[in-house]
Write a structure and sequence with these properties.
The protein is α+β, with helices and mostly antiparallel strands. It folds into two domains: 143 residues, Proliferating Cell Nuclear Antigen (Box), CATH 3.70.10.10; 117 residues, Proliferating Cell Nuclear Antigen (Box). The chain is 16% helix and 46% strand. The chain has a 14-stranded antiparallel β-sheet with strand order 5-1-7-8-9-6-2-3-4-18-17-16-10-14. A four-stranded antiparallel β-sheet has the order 13-12-11-15. The protein is elongated, with a radius of gyration of 21 Å. The model has no long low-confidence stretch (mean pLDDT 89).
Length: 274
């Protein structure tokens, strides 16, 4: 197995650092799936999918060399402490010229970060970090594959994440559960119900990409943990081009965030049984 890549664009290094830092606030351990075309950060909770962050290597890296366990199964799966990964990238915030990431063996498998901090001066500075990883054997790969996504009842645009975050931050101080309702007319309602009040926010004129015509009710709803939704809203740091909310009636919502053609975030929140 072999893996080596290099980034030189400061904007891309900043976005990559933001992605990893955001993941580190969601979980302690993460699985990274490497293929010839993509890097996929995968978080699961007892085999239930939580997050898939899919990054195109072609856009991110000026150099990308990867060979998996075999020609037929040209993939590598690594598990690691994502907070260590995030700390290793902190140096990119201080005008790094480039970063090389490679799979090494230093008494144990590691991802080694070689960061060039050279300034305009003659002296060059290198910063090297080793993050221990566990190589996941092939027999466990099935546990970390992209899950089969069900056909959702509706797929609707989400309002601006920063604006949404202000609303959700207030609502989560009142309730632990949030009811999300959408319909094919482009309306989305966020609602909480407590003993002393019902509070709702209505959004209209949203784009609808998909809606099941045979659905008996015009409204599709799911009740979810409001803190889990609040975690997703932190992805506004990437300034996404589009964000969709996919709802499976009273079973699940999947939030999909796109940044250009090089980052796609899939975030799964199971519904709470009513």
């Amino acid at each position: 197995m072999k893996f080596r890549c290099r980034m030189v664009d400061p904007n891309i290094m900043r976005d990559f650092t933001s992605i990893v830092n955001t993941i580190s606030r969601i979980t302690k351990y993460c699985v990274l799936r490497l293929t010839p075309d993509e890097l996929c950060f995968n978080i699961g909770d007892e085999r239930i999918p939580v997050l898939w962050a899919v990054l195109s290597q072609q856009y991110l890296f000026t150099e990308y060399i990867m060979s998996g366990v075999s020609e037929e199964e040209n993939e590598i799966y690594l598990e690691f402490d994502v907070s260590m990964f995030a700390r290793s990238l902190n140096s990119l915030r201080i005008m790094a010229k480039s970063v090389k990431i490679k799979l090494t063996n230093k008494r144990q498998p590691c991802l080694t970060f070689d960061i060039d901090l050279s300034s305009m001066a003659i002296d060059s500075r290198q910063c090297i970090h080793d993050v221990p990883v566990r190589l996941i054997p092939r027999r466990e790969w099935i546990e970390h594959k992209m899950p089969d996504v069900p056909e959702f009842d509706i797929s609707i645009e989400i309002p601006h994440l920063k604006y949404l975050r202000c609303i959700i931050d207030r609502m989560k101080n009142m309730s632990s559960q949030l009811i999300i309702t959408a319909n094919k007319n482009g309306t989305m309602i966020l609602k909480i119900e407590v003993d002393y009040a019902t509070v709702s926010t209505h959004f209209k004129g949203l784009q609808v990409w998909k809606s099941k015509e045979e659905q008996e009710s015009n409204d599709i709803s799911a009740t979810v943990n409001i803190k889990k939704l609040a975690m997703f809203l932190g992805w506004d740091i990437l300034h996404p081009d589009s964000v969709k909310c996919n709802i499976l009636q009273e079973k699940m919502i999947k939030l999909t965030l796109d940044v250009g053609e090089y980052v796609k975030i899939h975030y799964f929140i199971p519904a709470i049984a009513s």
